């Protein structure tokens, strides 16, 4: 899916986006935009600020680059090739999609062995971007550093964290305030997804690390932890 319609270093020339911000900055949550709202709060590349606003800008950038409405483009280039039958892509690209565990696991398997992304782009997406930046991991407080790739959070040495003590530092993925997660551990060759009935809260903080460790222990008996 390397169509050269957009480049990571393309400047994002949009109202409210700080001068010098690029597509890479938006994907890595370093464009300087806040969690919500249009007023920048930092210079690009200086802080890791988890930003729904940044991903909404990114959706508009993609629409301009592809010439398609974002839901139609996602349907054609992601959902159809992966056979995702339950995923609904209406709403905000930052927080508005809905789907099933089955579809989440299909995405996880794709991220373990990509068929849609070129190998070099997948490698970059799962590698820390702008290393050393601190930031708030929602629900878990300030992380030093708060490592992210391109769209994916990277576990690194974060503590506390929503993955487990057995998870490799290369583990990447995302969790949502809907009480859901998807992680991919490339060293274990394993992916896992969770969809809950309750919004994210203290119960998830308490339960998810143990759940992850149990999944890894079951899949990798005799490994003795990581």
General description of the model:
- The radius of gyration is 17 Å and the shape is globular.
- A 4-stranded antiparallel β-sheet has the order 3-4-5-6, sandwiched between helices. It has a two-stranded antiparallel ribbon with strand order 1-2.
- Strand 5 and strand 6 form a beta hairpin.
- By secondary structure, the chain is an alpha+beta fold.
- The mean pLDDT is 93.
- The chain starts with 22 loop residues before the first helix and ends in a 7-residue tail after the last helix.
- The chain has helices at residues 23-27, 52-66, 70-82, 101-112, 119-125, 202-219, and strands at residues 135-137, 141-143, 153-154, 172-176, 180-185, 190-195.
How much is the radius of gyration in Å? Answer: 17 Å
List the helices and strands in order.
Answer: HHHHHEEEEEEH
Strand order of the largest sheet: 3-4-5-6
Q: DSSP helix count?
A: 6
What's the story with the biggest beta sheet?
Answer: 4 strands, antiparallel
Helix content: 25-40%
Low-confidence stretches: none
Q: What proportion strand?
A: 5-15%
State the shape: globular
Count every beta strand, where a strand is a DSSP E run of 2 or more residues: 6
Classify the secondary structure makeup into a structural class: alpha+beta
In round numbers, the mean pLDDT is 93
Cα end-to-end separation = 34 Å
């Amino acid at each position: 899916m390397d169509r050269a319609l957009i480049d990571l270093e393309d400047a994002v020339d949009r109202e409210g986006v700080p001068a010098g911000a690029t597509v890479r900055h938006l994907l890595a949550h370093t464009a300087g935009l806040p969690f919500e709202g249009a007023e920048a709060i930092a210079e690009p590349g200086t802080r890791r600020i988890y930003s729904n606003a940044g991903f909404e800008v990114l959706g508009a950038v993609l629409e301009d680059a592809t010439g398609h409405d974002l839901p139609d483009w996602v349907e054609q280039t992601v959902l159809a090739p992966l056979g995702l039958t339950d995923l609904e892509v209406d709403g905000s690209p930052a927080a508005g999609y809905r789907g099933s565990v089955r579809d989440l696991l299909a995405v996880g398997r794709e991220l373990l062995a990509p068929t849609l992304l070129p190998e070099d782009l997948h490698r970059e997406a799962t590698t820390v971007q702008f290393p050393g930046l601190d930031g708030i991991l929602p629900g878990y407080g300030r992380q030093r550093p708060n490592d992210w790739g391109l769209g994916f959070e990277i576990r690194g040495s974060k503590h506390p964290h929503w993955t487990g003590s057995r998870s490799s530092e290369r583990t990447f993925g995302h969790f949502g305030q809907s009480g859901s997660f998807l992680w991919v551990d490339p060293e274990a060759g394993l992916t896992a997804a969770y969809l809950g009935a309750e919004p994210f809260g203290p119960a998830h903080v308490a339960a998810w690390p143990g759940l992850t460790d149990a999944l890894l222990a079951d899949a990798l008996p005799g490994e003795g932890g990581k």
